[in-house]
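Quick start: read one record
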Amino acid sequence: MTDQNRGIMKFNEADSIPAVAISGILILGSIGFLIYWALQSAYALG
């Protein structure tokens, strides 16, 4: 077992390019949404 297959992602090919890309898109999208939501709530933009 490689180090990349330890922890939460305990399945084969957990360190493959598509899996990493999907995870990255989900994380960055969530952060972007939270920033947008915070700005909308704080400053009532638009």
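The mean pLDDT is 80.
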